[in-house]
Design a protein that fits this description.
This protein is mainly alpha-helical and 171 residues long. 74% of the residues lie in helices and 0% in strands. The structure holds MU-OXO-diiron.
């Protein structure tokens, strides 16, 4: 069973994950409008990943005997000054998510909820990867600056990304 406090916190994080999907779809729309289909495709894959993260919270709440509560999702930022600006915004968002996961894990420890601790551990590792992938792209885009040819190369490279459901998603 989940405590009411833990259930609320898990529902809140489920919303954050679904919001992430919404935010990255907004960024995909921005990249599409800038004729950068590779960056748009990368963001669409990222949005799909975030949907699976939201589903993992949904599944865990149900499996742990809790009650899901879908909360309102804010309008994401739709416009960005540049591709670099969008990825920097994305990194800040991932840092926010990392902080939220950390707080959730603290709560699970305080409540001695072993199941929640094990569940959340996957997200601790995932957040390290999330921040690393945004940071790497930021470094590439920073190097490219206003070089149009360089940007097209990054666009082509990022367009290769394919969606692979996380191994733990079906658990
Ligand atoms: Fe699911 Fe990018 O955090």
């Amino acid at each position: 069973m989940l405590s009411p406090k833990m259930q609320d916190a898990l529902n809140e994080q489920m919303k954050n994950e679904f919001f992430s999907a919404y935010l990255y779809m907004a960024m995909a729309g921005y990249f599409q409008s800038e004729d950068l289909p590779g960056l748009a495709s990368w963001m669409r894959v990222q949005a799909l990943e975030e949907m699976t993260h939201g589903e993992m919270f949904f599944n865990f709440i149900c499996d742990a005997g809790g009650r899901t509560h879908l909360l309102p999702v804010d309008e994401p930022q739709n416009d960005y000054a540049s591709p670099l600006d969008a990825f920097e915004y994305g990194l800040k968002h991932e840092q926010f998510v990392t902080e939220r996961i950390g707080k959730l894990l603290d709560l699970a420890r305080t409540e001695n909820s072993h199941a929640a601790q094990v569940f959340l551990q996957w997200f601790v590792t995932e957040q390290v990867e999330e921040e690393a992938s945004f940071s790497l792209i930021i470094r590439k885009l920073s190097r490219v600056k206003d070089d149009g040819r360089g940007l097209l190369m990054v666009d082509q490279e990022l367009g290769q990304r394919v969606f692979t459901p996380p191994a733990a998603a079906g658990a």
